[in-house]
């Protein structure tokens, strides 16, 4: 049966993925969607319940992500243009508030048995995002609005690459689009909306997720705790890349309030729920 709650969670993931530096995958973990998403995509035909169960789970998520992205594209664009510090700090707070929920996915006995490996995976995850954050953000480019074969192919390939951010927490799909010079194109396409470009982008995301989700699903089944060590490293790296200096003025105090609101929102969205700690 189609779940409206799952659809609403998809809307939140879609909103978060519009903000450069914010990972839709991190929000999916916070909302309790991540493991089931990886199973549904990675073992679509072979998981318990079969393809029908997975389709009924994935359909509201995908529709929710599209609705969240289209419905809030203009709002996110306005907030980033007029209140960039406060908007970033809200999402930093949201990510910080998700950390307790992420940590509860790790079996402490695994860390005690393999402390060097656990720490190494954590550092690798954090450094990967930090090094990506050192890349110079490209200047704004004119959005592509035509529906020529060349443009559609560019959008499809960019969507496949950016979709990895929905699969790997800590990576930002919007930041990847910025690096590819296509963030303005997709923000315009979703806010207009240009249904042809949106449709091709969604198709590319589904292809990209299907390509990598199987590997992530295997890792979560075999090395659940160690995989979450990498995920937590990626998330902490994304926090560092999003952080901006604060000043002791009204704008700075408003940004701190936005950060606190993000932490509270994370707790309300699911950070206080018990996590599933598994071995390995």
- CA(first)-CA(last) distance: 33 Å
**Class from secondary-structure proportions:** mainly alpha
Count of separate DSSP helical elements: 14
SSE order, as H and E? Answer: HHHHHHHHHHHHHH
Unreliable residue stretches? 271-278
Rg on CA atoms, Å: 18 Å
Number of strands: 0
Beta fraction: under 5%
The general outline is globular
Number of domains: 1
Helical amount among residues, as a percent range?
over 70%
Largest sheet: none
* Mean pLDDT figure: 83
Describe the structure.
This protein has 280 residues and is mainly α. Helix content is 75%, strand content 0%. The chain has 14 helices and no strands. It has one domain.
What's this, in brief?
This protein has 280 residues and is an all-alpha fold. The protein has one domain (4-267). It contains 14 helices and no strands.
Explain the layout of strands and helices.
Layout: H1 4-16, H2 24-30, H3 34-42, H4 50-82, H5 84-103, H6 108-113, H7 115-133, H8 149-162, H9 164-167, H10 173-180, H11 183-191, H12 195-222, H13 224-242, H14 250-271
Key phrases:
280 residues; disordered C terminus
């Amino acid at each position: 049966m189609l779940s409206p709650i799952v659809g609403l969670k998809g809307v939140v993931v879609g909103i978060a993925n519009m903000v450069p530096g914010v990972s839709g995958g991190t929000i999916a973990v916070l909302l309790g969607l991540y493991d089931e998403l990886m199973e549904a995509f990675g073992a679509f035909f072979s998981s318990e319940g079969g393809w029908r169960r997975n389709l009924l789970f994935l359909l509201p998520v995908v529709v929710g992500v599209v609705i969240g992205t289209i419905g809030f594209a203009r709002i996110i664009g306005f907030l980033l243009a007029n209140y960039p510090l406060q908007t970033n700090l809200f999402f930093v707070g949201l990510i910080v508030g998700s950390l307790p929920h992420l940590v509860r996915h790790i079996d402490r006995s695994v860390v005690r048995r393999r402390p060097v490996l656990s720490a190494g995976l954590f550092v690798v995850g954090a450094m990967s995002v930090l090094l990506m954050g050192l890349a110079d953000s490209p200047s704004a480019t004119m959005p592509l609005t035509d529906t020529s074969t060349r443009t559609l192919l560019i959008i499809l390939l960019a969507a496949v690459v950016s979709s990895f951010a929905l699969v790997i927490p800590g990576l930002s799909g919007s930041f990847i689009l910025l690096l590819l010079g296509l963030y303005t194109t997709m923000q315009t396409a979703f806010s207009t909306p240009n249904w042809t470009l949106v449709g091709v982008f969604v198709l590319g995301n589904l292809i990209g997720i299907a390509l990598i989700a199987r590997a992530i699903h295997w890792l979560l089944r075999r090395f659940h705790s160690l995989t979450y060590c990498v995920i937590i490293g990626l998330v902490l790296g994304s926090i560092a890349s999003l952080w901006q200096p604060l000043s002791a003025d009204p704008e700075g105090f408003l940004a701190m309030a936005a950060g606190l609101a993000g932490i509270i929102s994370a707790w309300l969205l699911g950070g206080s729920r018990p996590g599933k700690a598994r071995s390995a």
